[in-house]
Amino acid sequence: MKICMLLAIALMLFSFVITGMATDGKSGIASEQAMQKLVEGNARFVSNHVAHPNQAAERRAEVVSGQHPFAIIVGCSDSRVPPEVLFDQGIGDLFVVRTAGQVMDDVTIGSIEYAAEHLSVRRLRRSQGHHRGRCCSRTSGQPG
User: Fold this and answer.
1) Which residues are within 8 A (CB) of 136 and not within 5 positions of it... i.e. 6 or more apart?
2) How many helices (H) and strands (E) does the chain have?
3) What is the value of pTM for the model shown?
4) Alpha-carbon gap, residue 137 to 46, rounded angstroms
5) Angle at which helices 2-11 and 31-46 pack, to 10 degrees?
6) Is the CB of residue 22 less than 8 Å from the CB of residue 34?
7) Which of helix, strand or coil describes residue 115?
8) N or C: fewer beta carbons within 10 Å in the chain?
9) Half-sphere exposure of residue 132: CA atoms within 13 angstroms, side-chain side
10) How far is 7 from 13, CA to CA, in rounded Å?
11) Which DSSP string corresponds to 5-63?
12) Would you say 88 and 45 are in contact if contact means Cβ atoms under 8 Å apart?
């Protein structure tokens, strides 16, 4: 039940959540693992037990030569829903495209295409959710 609730919370975070699942891409993370990392990261955030992974000097040095994110997140521009914080991920883990009003224009689509083509994110998953700010309270574990 708790995992289902956390998965629902993770999927309701943004107007559009697209997780790029690289089964043979550069990240080396399979589809199920990518979603599990997002669910577990959101659970840490909600429970206030964040790990702040991949943020140390070693990680910063590692990503100088390139990025290999395991997920593409197309999310809301709302300053209250930063994907890296809500999913407790670090530098280079997520390829984030933020847009206001659920607008999927040429720039947004071009960014997704870049991640897919040049960063080897192979499959996309889309869901909808963010509705009048409720995602902020749900994600933080506060009553909405």
Assistant:
1) 78, 80, 81
2) 6, 4
3) 0.72
4) 10
5) 100
6) yes
7) helix
8) N
9) 1
10) 10
11) HHHHHHHTSSSSEE--B-SSSTT---HHHHHHHHHHHHHHHHTT----TT-SHHHHHHG
12) yes
Q: Residue 62: how many CB atoms within 10 A of its CB? A: 15
In whole angstroms, what is the distance from residue 17 CA to residue 34 CA? 13
Residue 65's identity, in one-letter code, is: S
Indicate the number of domains in the chain.
1
Range of the domain at 58: 2-140
Q: What is the largest CA-CA distance in the chain?
A: 43
Give buried/exposed letters for 75-105 (b at 16+ CB in 10 A, else e). bbeeeebebbebbbbbbbbbbbbbbeeeeee
Contacts of 102 (CB under 8 A, 6+ apart): 15, 16, 76
Q: Phi then psi for 59, rounded to 5 degrees?
A: -65, -40
pLDDT in tens, the chain (144 residues): 454 444 444 444 433 444 444 444 566 788 788 889 999 999 999 999 999 999 999 999 999 999 999 888 888 888 888 999 999 999 999 998 888 877 889 999 999 999 988 888 755 555 445 554 455 444 445 554
Amino acid at 5: M
